Queue: 4 jobs
Job 1
Amino acid sequence: MRPVLVKGGRVIDPSRQLDQAADVLIQDGRIAAVESNVTAPEGAETIDASGMVVAPGLVDVHVHLREPGKEAAETVATGARAAAAGGFTSVCAMPNTDPITDNQAAIGFIVKQASAANGARVFPYGAISIGQRGEQLAEFAKLIEAGAIAFSDDGHPVLSSHLMRTALEYAQAFGIPVADHCEEPSLAKGGAMHDGVVSTRLGLKGIPAAAEEIMVARDVILSELTGGHVHLCHISTKGSVDIIRRGKENGVNVTAEVTPHHLTLTHDKCEGYNTNAKMNPPLREEADVVALREALKDGTLDMIATDHAPHHYEAKERDFDDAPFGIVGLETALGLGVKELVNGGVLSLPELMRRMSTEPAKAFHLDAGTLEPGKPADLVIFDPGATWTVEPTEFHSKSRNTPYAGHVLAGRVERTIVGGRTVFQRDS
Ligand SMILES: [Zn+2]
C-alpha cells in the first residue's frame, strides 16, 4: 500500500485535545505520524489539505441501510457510499431489515456486503429479541461472534421491562450497549407528528413528549438496577434531557444520541402536510431544540447520530397519515452541524468533531474517532468555510427524502479516507 501524506491542514483530534496545523502521515492503512513538516516518504501520495480541516472520520451509530428487504430504498453499498460522501468512516446499521438481523447468518450477510461496499465501514446491530417481537431474547453471544457491535430493536421500543432488564444484564457481560427507541406505544399509537398546536391545526393525531420520556425514565432506572450500558436513541424532548442529566449525575451507565433534525427543526416544518418532516420521534418545539443544543454542549447528550432512514419516493408521496416515518441524513449531517451549531455559536469545531466522531466511537467501543498513531487511518478532510445548497438528486443515497432540499449549509466534505484508502473524493 502506498503511503499517504495529508499536508498543511488544520488537524482536529478531540481524542487528544489536538487542534493545530499539522501533516498526517498514513502507512499501511494506519496513522503513522501527526506532526508539523513531515517529509513525504518515497512513493507517497501527497494530498494538499491547506484551508481544510483534517479530523477523525465521522462515526454514526444509528443508520438504516434497508438491505436485505428494501433494496429499492437503499443497500449496504449505497448507504456506505452515502456515508463516505458525508464524511463518515464508520456507521452502525440497525437490525430492522427483512429478514431481521437476529441470527448469525443475517449478521454475516451484512458483514459480507459491507466488506464489498467500498465506502464507510458498516457495523451491524443485532436484534435484542427474536423477530424484534419483544418476547424472546436473541442469542447475544452468537450475534457478537458474527460481528454485532451492539443490540437494539430500533423501529420498535422494547416494551417489556423484564426483557429490557435481561438484555442489559446479558449485554453487560460482553461490555456492549443496548440501544432503545424510547416510545410508550399506548401513548404514541396512531400519532403522525408531535402533539401540539401544529398537530391540532392540521387535524393530525399527535405523539406526546411523555411517550418518549416515560421510556427514557424506565431505561435509566433499569440501567441503574443492572449496571448495564443503556444507549438512548434519537432523544427529542427537554423532559428526556432532564431525566438523562439526573441519571448521569447519579453515575448511571447511560449514553444518548440526538439527530441533526431534532437539533435544527421544529414541528412547524410539518405545515402543509410535508411528509419529509415526518419522523419518529417527531420534530418537537423550540424549547426542546434549545434544550437539546444545551445538552449536546454539556455532554448530557453524548453524540449526534443521523437515524438515516431512506424511503422510496412513492412512499413519501402518500398522505401524511400514511407516509412512513424518517428522513435521509448521512449527506447533510456535517453541513448542518457546521452551519447551525458551529456558525450558530453552540459548539466549537473541535466540540462538533467530538460529538460526531470521538464520543460515538468511544461509547460503542469502535476502533475509530482518533488520529492517534497506530490507529486505523479513517479521516475526513473538509472545507469548513465552503457553503453549498442541498440538492437531493445529487445524493449518493438511493433515496431523496430530506426536509433540507434547497437549504444552504456550511462545511463541505472534500475527501474521506478509510483504512488509508480514499473512498470519497469531491470532483471539482
Ligand atoms: Zn428509532
Job 2
Amino acid sequence: MNTSPIQHSTATRPLAAWTYQSAELAELEYENLFRTSWQFVCHVNEVPRQRDFFTLDLPRDPVLVLRGEDGVLRAFLNVCRHRGAKLLEGAAQCKARLSCPYHGWSYHTDGRLAGRPAEHTFADHDTQSLGLRALDIEVLCGLVFVRIVPGGASLHSMWAEYLPLIEPYRLEEMVPLQAAFLEEWDCNWKVGVDNNLENYHVPVGHPGYQRLLDSDLTGFMNVHGVAGSLSVLRPEPSSNWAERMYQRMAPALNSALPAQVRNTWSFFTMPPNTGLDLYGDSMDLFQFFPLGGQRCRVRYPIYVRPDTRREMRVLRHLNARINRRVGAEDRALCERVQAGLNSQDFAFGPLSSYEHCVLDMHARVQDACPVSRLPHNPGEGVLRQHNANMRAA
Ligand code: FES
Ligand SMILES: [Fe+2]
C-alpha cells in the first residue's frame, strides 16, 4: 500500500471562503463532482431476492437499484421515461412489472419498457429506446455504488490497494442495523468532507476518541484521492466507563476477525462526499449532499454482521454511544466553521501537513469547477458562465 501523501498536481492553495457560501457553486459541484462519481446506495444484503429494490434520492437525481428476475443487480434513474414521474419509493420487493403511478407505463425488471396504456395513441411504436435510463453500478465488499455520468475509474481500481485493510472486516456479510439516519447540518457539504479528511482535530475536538484511540494523524491517500487512517484502541483504560467497557470487550468479541483488525478502527473517505468507518463490531457510511450553499444533508447508515450474542449487542450499543457523541461533536464543529466562513474577510490560514488530504480535495473541486479558483465570488447568477469561460480558456 502506498501510504505517502500524494499531492494533486494543482493542489496549491485551499479554496476561498466564498466557495462555502454559494448556492450556485453547489449546483455546479453537484453536476461536475457528484454526478460523475460513485455514490453509495445500499448493501447487497438489502436487495438479496429477485425484484428487490432500493431507492435513494440524490439532490437532483432519484436513483434505483433493482435485482432483476434474472438475478442481475442493475441501477437506473428512478424516473419514468414518459413525463418524468418518480417511479418507486423506499425499498421493497416489486411486482414483475414496475408500473408508473401517473399514466401506467410499465417496465420489466431489467429496465425495458413493457407496455403503455393506449399504445395506439402513440405515433412512434419503437419502444426499444424507452427503457429506464441505466446507470453504472459496482459492488465493493458488499456495498452497492452507482454513478450517474458513465465512465471514469472503477471502484475496485480506486480502492485496490486498500482492500487488504478492508476485507478482514467481512463487510459483505453485514446487514443494516436500522434505517439510515438522516440529518441536515448548517454547513456547506465541503465543511463536512474537509472535517472527515483529517485527524488533526481529533486530540482537541474529540476527547472521547483521544482517550480511546491512538489515531494516525497523518493518514494516507492514493492517486484517486481515496484517503484513510487507522486508529488503534489504546491499551490503557479510558477514564470514561463506556469507552473503558468497549476497550475491555472488543478484542474477545471480535476474536473471529483477523488479529490486525480486532482492535483497529479504520476510517476512509472517497471523493467527493463519502466516508466509510470500519469497526470490529460494525461499520457505517457518512454521505454529505449539498442543500444550497450553506446547508447539507448527511446520510448515515450502519451495518453489522449477524450476531445474536448479548455481549455483541452491548458492544454495538457502546460503539453507538461513543460515535453518536463524536458525530454530535463533528456537527457542532462543522457548524462553527461555517459561521466563520460566512465572514466576508476570512481566508484559510496555512494548513498543516496533517491536512494534506484536505488540500487534495480542494484541488479536485477546483479541477471540476474552475470558477472555484477565484479569490472572490464573480457573482451569483453569472457563476456558471464564468465557470464555462474558465474551462474553455
Ligand atoms: S409519467 Fe410515467 S406514465 Fe406518465
Ligand atoms: Fe471529527
Job 3
Amino acid sequence: MEQIQLLWQFQQADMEADALESEIKRAPNRLALIKNREFLMEQQSAVKRMEEEVSEMVDRMDVIKDAINRLEEQLSSLQKRVAEAPPASLEQARELSHDAQRMLSGLSSFEQEMRRIQKDAAERDRMEKDIRMKYAKVKMEYDKQKVDYEAEYKEQMKALEEKRRIAQDKTRGIDPSLIERYQIIKQHCTPPVARLIGDQCGGCNMSLPSVTLRNLKAGAQIIECETCGRMIIQM
Ligand SMILES: [Zn+2]
C-alpha cells in the first residue's frame, strides 16, 4: 500500500482514539466528581482560614485582657491614693479626675472591642459548623461517586488503550519522518492530514496556490497547505 493511504488509515485510527479520550474526559460522572472535589477543597481552605482568624482573635483577646487588668490596677491604686491623701487643691483634683476618666474610657473601649471579638468568634464558630456539616454530606457522596467512577474509568481506559494500540499498529510501514511530521502538525492543527478537494485544502477550505497544485500534479504525494500547515494528500 502507498504511504499516503497508510498515513490516512493511521490518522483515522488516531482520531478515533483521540475522540474516545476526549469523551472520557467529558464523561458526566467524571465532571460531577471533579466538581465535588473542587467544592470539598474550597471548604477545607475556608475552614482553615476561619481557624486562623479565630486564633488571631484569641491572641488579641489575651492582649486586651492584660490591658484591662493593667488599667484596673492603675485605677484602684489611684483610688487608694485619693483615699489616703485627698487632693489638696482644685488643680490637683482636676488632674486626678482627668486621669481616672482616661483610664475608665480606656477600659470601656477595650471591653467594647472584647465583646465585638467574642461576637465575631461565635459567628465564625457557627459558620464553621455549618461548613463541616455540608462538607460531610458532600464527602460521603464524593466517596461513593469515586468508587463508582474508578470502575467506570478502568473500563474506559482499557478501551482507550485498545484504540491506541490499533493506531500504533497502523504506523507500521509508514516512513518514521512522516509520522514525526504528523505529530508536529497535530500539536496545532488536527487532524493533521487533509484531502485535496477540488483545488482546496480539505482541512481549512482555502484554495491552494496554482504552483502548489502543479507540484501535486507533477507527482508530489504530499503537499503542505500554506494556510493551516496540514499535509494535503490526493487519494
Ligand atoms: Zn489548510
Job 4
Amino acid sequence: MKTTSLTLTSLLICLGAAAQSPPPNGGGAYQLPTAPCVTPELRSSVVAMLQANLHALEVRGQLPAPQAPEMSEANAVLFDWPLRLAPGVSYRSYYGISNYVDQDTAFPNKLLDYNCGNRSYDLASGYNHPGTDIFTWPFSRLMQANNTVQVIAAQAGTVIGKSDGNADNSCAMCTACQWNAVFIRHTDGSVAWYGHMKKNSLTAKNVGDAVAKAEYLGIVGSSGSSTGPHLHFEVYRNSTFTLANRIDPYAGPCNRLNGNTTWWVTQKPYREPMVNRLVTHHAPPVFGTCPELEKPNDRREFQQGDTVYFATYYHDQQQGATTQYSVLQPDASIFRSWSHNAPSTYNASYWYWWYILPSNAPVGTWTFRTLFNGMTDTVQFSVKPSTPTAVLNLANGQFVRIYPNPAPAEAPLRLEWRLDGARQRPVQVRVWDLNGRLHIYRPSVRSGQPIPMPTACGVYVVEVFVSARERYRLQVARQ
Ligand SMILES: [Zn+2]
C-alpha cells in the first residue's frame, strides 16, 4: 500500500466574518507642511524683475494698456481653475487646498481666511501667506515626476515674467532658493503669479508673449521655498505688488481685500468634500520621506487568496461625514461592505482596509466602490485563479491536488488528480481531523468534483483511496 502525506505549515487561524464596520487598518490625515512660499528675499527679487520687465515692455510698446473691465460677465477678468490633469489621466480629483490668503496682517499665528476660518499661515518674521496653495494629492511627488498635473492660465494675458531652471524638489523652507514661476498680466491690468513649478517644465512663451485662457504654463512642482508639490497662486489688482493691491480670488465674509467680489468664474466651495482617487494596493502605500518618490504599492490584478488593500483618498473630508464602501464580485454581489465616519476634518486624508480574498473567490472583474457626499466612485480589479497549494506531485507528471487551500468556510473543496491507470475512475474520499475522527465519507468522487469539508476550522487530512492498494493523504486547512 502506498501512503503519502503532505504536511502544510498553514497558519491555523480561524478568520471570523468581518465586522459590519471595522475600523480602518490605516490612514489618516495628509498635511502638507507649511513653508513661506514666497520668502521676503524671493519677493523682492520677483518684484524687481517684474518692474524691470514691465518697464521694458512698455518702452517697446508691447504691453497693452489696462482696460477697465466692462460690466458684463464676458469681459470681466474672472479665473478658471488654474490646474488640470494631463491628457489621458482621469481621476475624480487630484488636489487639495492647504492655505488660502491670510487676511489678518497681524502675526504670528493670527490667521483669517476669506471664510473666517484659519486655513492659512503666517510667521513671526512678518510673513502673511499672500496666495492660495493648491497641492496635488495623493502621491504628489510621483505625479510631479510623471507630469500628471498641469498649471494652466486661469485667465488670458501677457507674460510679464518667467523664471525656470531652478531645483524643484524642495522639502522645507529655504531663504536663498529660487522658484520656477510664470507671471501674467491680464487685460484689466491685474496680475497673477503661478509659483513652485517643475524645473524646465515651463511654457516656451517668453516675456511679452500672449497666452490664452487655459493655456499650458508648466507642471506642479516643489521649487523654491516649498515642502511639497503645490501651486502658489497669487493675484494683484495692478502692477504695484503691495498688500493694498492684493486680491483674494475667493469672495467671502472675511475677505478684507475684495470682499464679496469673487474673481472666479465658478468659485469652489470653502470645503469641497470629494474622493480624489480609489486605489487597490497589494501592500499599504508608502509615502516616504521627501524628496523620495512615494511607493503606492498599487495593483489591479490579484489572485484568489491574495490580500487586497482598499484605499480611498479624499480632500476636504469633514468630521462625521460617512462613506459607504463595498467590494463587489464579478456578478455584482457584495463581497464586503462597511462604512466609516471621518473622525475629524481634513484638507486631505486617506483610509484603507484590507481583506483576504477567499481561495475560491470568483474569478473575473471585481469592483471597489464608494459612496461619499452623494458621489459614487469605483475602481475595478481582476481576480485570477490561485495556484493550488495542497498538491501531491508524483512521478511522471502524476498528481493529486485539492483547492482552494486553505479553504474558506463558505464553499466546498475540489479534488483533482492525474494518475496512471486510475485516470477518471472515481475514488473514495475520507476526511479526518488530526485526532483521527472521521468527518466526511464519500464513496465515489470524480476528478474535479467538489468534496464537502467540515465546517469547524482546523487542519484535516483528506484521504484519497484510488484502489485497495493505492492511497494518498493531503492536509488541508479550513479557515
Ligand atoms: Zn503659497
